[in-house]
User: What shape does this take?
Amino acid sequence: MKVSTERIPDSQIVLNIEVDDDEFEVHKNRAYKKIVQQANVPGFRKGKAPRRVLEQVLKPGALVEEALETLVPEFTAKAIQSEGIEAVGQPTVEIEQEAPLIVKATVPLKPTVDLGDYQSVRVAWEESNVTEDEITEVLENMQRDGTPWEPVDRAIEMGDMVTLKLEAWGTGLPPLEPDENTISNEDIPADSDEDKTDNTTDERQFMNEDDWTYYPRPESEFPAPGFSDAIIGMSQNEEREFNIAIPKDHSIEDLAGKETRYKVTLKEIKGQDLAPMDDEWAKGIGEGYESFDALKLSVTEDLSSRKEEEVKQNYETEVLKQVIEGATLEFAPIMVNQEIEHLLRTQAERLRSMGMELESYLSMSGTTIEDMVEQMRPDAESRVTNSLILGQVIEEESIEATEDEIQTELERVTGLDENATPEQQEQMKQLIESEEARTSVQRSVKQRKAMDSLVTIARDGTTKADNTKEGEDTNSPTEDSETTDK
Amino acid sequence: MHPLEVLRRPVVTEKSVLMAEEGKYVFQTHPNANKMQIKEAVTQAFEVTVLKVNTLTMPGKRRRSRQRGGWESRSKAWKKAIVTLAPGERIELFESP
Assistant: This one.
């Protein structure tokens, strides 16, 4: 066996392995012994046909193929070992030449990560604060959710629920696409279409809805901004026609900057008789609150913890992004592919838990598995990058996870399902005790801590005076993070 | 009979491969070929010395056909010849590695 190596980009190495004929022969013999046990050769009992006879009966090359199947992994493994290569995955193998046999194996190497000057990454921290408006909004939503809709005999006000017959036309809209069935149905009322086309040639109807439920709100952007304002004050069975010029930055591209005309017939108005926000009302909310103030406090706490979480999340993303920018890393494409596979598996599992197979989901959404893989690629890439970066941080900061932390995390992860059946709990327990779960949790704890220490570094730079020297900086935050984490 | 008509095909079975190791090679031959003709044909075809030829007629096997209401027929009988070569001589066709 002769091996030559060639380093190629993306943390990969190519091994050219030349296999001696003798070594090849050994594997061919092995392959013969395997095949002959299964082969039906006329005139011979199973396993009794001589190799010569068997070779004539089989497809040409079948024996070689079988031989390669055992030979290639063995020889690539041997070559990897003899060259002292640290592989992180299965090599991709090609047969370069058959006589003498040359195997070309592309081996993914351990990724190289250079964090760069991650110690000096600083990101400004924005405190989260909950505004009074946000609290009021949540409370009002609660108030609305708990109140039934009742028909009312008055003109439309904001906050009502109305049933409309709505027709809408727009000027200069792109032509209909034939397979857009939602709109092409509207071709049928040809009479209304025809007399409109007399006036303006390029006006086209884009909505024709009967018994359409609509919630007038000042901020509503659909069907057009200002639509709610335009129908305010209408009363039952009233008809109204009006024009709205849609602003250029509208989210629906086809409509942006267009002139639109609406014809509305009001069929029904429903309103809510909202209870006042008082202690009485607070008692009926959820599991019941002592007083309105207690409810408000709980809402505030809820909001602020959610917001804090969000701020923290964003902050972490930003810090990580900056660290990645300063870092240089090289990894083999196979790592991304593995991640994609992992993502696909999780996706399939999630679908299965909803009672759907991946295949039927794909055919339903009209995508192929290849599309999905391509879609996942950027995500998978960033996940690989993130985990490599964090892995390197773990190493450089020598972050360790203690037994206690692992145990707590395990319990947290598995304890999510309080109302699981005893069987499930039993399964969970086994899971907790499995080595696999332990290592994976250990990794996630470490990553968590690595992220925390990055955050500490990035925040410390902003809170501490900026005139601290880099050299001092590098030590203090790490120690901080470790002590606070324990 | 032309020598090329004599030998029909080698018989390659477990048994025949075993016999080949003792220098005995088995062929299916023309049903009317005699031992002399077989000897002649093998000598010519493989350039070997033939010491002995044993022949026998293999009876056809009974076959029942479902389509013909289970009527019995016979597959054709054929002549088998076992040719013994001079020691050390071989015929490539049967060679086992």
